[in-house]
């Protein structure tokens, strides 16, 4: 398997190079040089395959013989060890629950697969690998859990101070061992920009082996495509067009769905659901892309003002000029944005109507699917429920006006001691910290 940089198709890398470097030197993003189709017979018979089989088929189709069969099985068995069930709300609306992993967010699929793959590629290396990761809430906890105590790899998580929930913060600041947290006086976009700058700093990279664990790393993105097939498999067949509604921040999850579609997933359309951080819905509506500083919202993991994976969306649907690229994207993706008041109101509605607790991110997804289905009534939609509602327990209980269940592994975090170093949002501060702690 070969990958190229979205900034220059001649800048190519093997899977191992792409995964271990995270980002190409030209600050583009890695994309597979060729996106192969899954065997149509396999797709027709998805119901006969387990989630693990599906993941295996997607990987072997993409990777070819890059990783020996037996090694790939082990990587997948160690990472895809929890389910992704589809729950029916009504005949038109279904929820794909992606929060049954260790950190109770969809990022567990990507983070665990990536940790396994990196350890595999890192065998025999003597120099420690440092993973830098920026989080607006959920990535940090998943990466911390995925890489915890992984030999030869340490993880440094940058998160925006005061902009993640109390339990999200505990997930990424309380593990210790090879996991460190930096609390940044800024936004998620500041954290992400600092991380990206570190990768481009040759003085630093000569001293420290760096890689990324955000969805800018292709190893995070690929496993996120597995569950689209898994969800499609679980949906009762009816012949109505199927749409996936994806609550979106950095747009890795939606891009993984587009990858699945390119590989043959029979999906009619994707719906990009955002909170007030709506740069992609605005692009879909008028063709202008204007990144701007992120705003704080209830659905904090989606508080991203300059989504990294937008570059991959453009690459996947590249036309002959900007207008045709925009048209290509519009033909596959609809966009909707909602504010916090609408999000809270729909959480109450879904709680009362279906006795189902949505988290604020899933609620934005519900709103977007509902808006789309008002215009396209004969469709069936799957909302990606990206995180367990208990991760946002204070907001959720206040909005719903009643207690919700909290999983044991989350509840026990509340009393753990937070350990994080506080830094201003300046690249120089991060560089100095890294050099001091290398
Ligand atoms: N929503 C994210 C932001 C980072 O996104 P990623 O998918 O690129 O890691 C978060 O929860 O941190």
UniProtKB/TrEMBL annotation:
EC primary class: lyase
Annotated InterPro entries: Ser/Thr_deHydtase_PyrdxlP-BS, Thr_synth_N, Thr_synth_N_sf, Thr_synthase-like, Threonine_Synthase, TrpB-like_PALP, TrpB-like_PALP_sf
Catalytic reaction equation(s): O-phospho-L-homoserine + H2O = L-threonine + phosphate
GO terms, molecular function: pyridoxal phosphate binding; threonine synthase activity
Keyword set includes Cytoplasm: no
Cross-referenced Pfam families: PALP (PF00291), Thr_synth_N (PF14821)
Residue span, Tryptophan synthase beta chain-like PALP domain: 96-377
Family according to the record: Belongs to the threonine synthase family.
Protein known as: Threonine synthase
Species, as recorded: Haliscomenobacter hydrossis (strain ATCC 27775 / DSM 1100 / LMG 10767 / O)
Highest classification ranks of the organism: Bacteria, Pseudomonadati, Bacteroidota, Saprospiria, Saprospirales
């Amino acid at each position: 398997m070969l990958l190229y940089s979205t900034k220059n198709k001649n800048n190519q890398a093997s899977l191992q190079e792409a995964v271990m470097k995270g980002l190409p030197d030209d600050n583009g993003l890695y994309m597979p040089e060729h996106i192969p189709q899954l065997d149509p017979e396999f797709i027709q018979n998805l119901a006969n395959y387990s989630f693990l089989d599906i993941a295996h088929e997607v990987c072997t189709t993409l990777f070819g013989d890059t990783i020996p069969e037996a090694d790939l099985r082990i990587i997948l068995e160690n990472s895809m060890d929890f389910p992704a069930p589809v729950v029916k709300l009504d005949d038109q609306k279904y929820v794909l629950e992606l929060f049954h992993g260790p950190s109770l967010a969809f990022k567990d699929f990507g983070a665990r697969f990536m940790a396994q793959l990196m350890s595999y590629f890192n065998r025999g290396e003597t120099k420690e690998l440092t993973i830098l990761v920026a989080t607006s809430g959920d990535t940090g906890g998943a990466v911390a859990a995925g890489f915890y105590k992984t030999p030869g790899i340490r993880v440094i998580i940058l998160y925006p101070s005061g902009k993640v929930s109390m339990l999200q913060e505990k997930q990424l600041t309380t593990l210790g061992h090879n996991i460190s947290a930096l609390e940044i006086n800024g936004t998620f976009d500041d954290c992400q920009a600092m991380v990206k700058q570190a990768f481009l700093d040759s003085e630093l990279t000569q001293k420290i082996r760096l890689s990324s664990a955000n969805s800018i790393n292709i190893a995070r993105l690929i496993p996120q495509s597995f569950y689209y097939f898994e969800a499609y498999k679980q949906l009762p067949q009816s012949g109505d067009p199927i749409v996936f509604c994806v609550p979106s921040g950095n747009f890795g999850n939606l891009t993984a769905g587009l990858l699945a579609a390119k590989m043959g997933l029979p999906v009619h359309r994707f719906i990009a659901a955002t909170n007030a951080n709506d740069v992609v819905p605005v692009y879909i509506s008028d063709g202008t892309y204007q990144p701007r500083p992120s705003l704080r919202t209830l659905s904090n993991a989606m508080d991203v003002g300059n989504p990294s994976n937008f570059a991959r969306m453009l690459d996947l649907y590249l036309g002959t000029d900007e207008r045709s690229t925009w048209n290509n994207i519009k033909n596959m993706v609809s966009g909707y944005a909602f504010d916090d008041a609408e999000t809270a109101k729909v959480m109450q509605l879904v709680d009362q109507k279906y006795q189902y607790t949505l988290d604020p991110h899933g609620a934005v997804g519900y709103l977007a699917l509902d808006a789309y289905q008002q215009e396209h009534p004969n469709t069936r939609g799957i909302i990606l429920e990206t995180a367990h509602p208990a991760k946002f327990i204070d907001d959720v209980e206040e909005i719903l006006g009643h207690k919700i269940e909290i999983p044991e592994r989350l509840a026990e975090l509340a009393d753990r001691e937070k350990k994080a170093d506080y830094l201003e949002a300046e690249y120089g501060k991060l560089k100095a910290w890294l050099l001091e702690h290398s």
